[in-house]
Specification:
about 110 residues, three-stranded antiparallel β-sheet
């Protein structure tokens, strides 16, 4: 079953986007495709969730964008992680690891 933002914990989509952009700058559709690819198709982020998240992350200064040519020579907005975004990603990753470890402990109990 494919998951969308509504199925993800609050803030998880932001963390996934930041992690994806930490790998390399890319346009929005590329971010969505990379998340889907890395998650073996489990996470399918629709445009209605992705683009508002990208705009929000840019407003917060965690990513920045610039126009460039895509693989098929069309203009596309490319997003890139900022220094502040890298710091935020590190914080969110640490929080996620603590949370997922705690959930795992509860699931393994009894």
């Amino acid at each position: 079953m494919a998951k969308t933002k509504s199925d993800l914990l609050q803030g998880t989509l932001d963390m996934l986007i930041l992690k994806t952009l930490a790998l390399e700058p890319m346009h929005g559709w590329g971010v969505s495709q990379r998340i889907q690819q890395i998650s073996s198709g489990v996470l399918n982020i629709n445009q209605g969730s992705l683009y508002p998240a990208l705009y929000r992350l840019e407003d917060q200064g965690w990513i920045k964008s610039e126009w460039g040519a895509s693989d098929n020579n069309r203009q596309a907005k490319y997003y890139k992680l900022t220094r502040a975004g890298r710091k935020q990603l590190d914080e969110e990753t640490a929080n996620w690891q603590r949370l997922s470890a705690a959930i795992e402990q509860v699931l393994q109990a009894g």
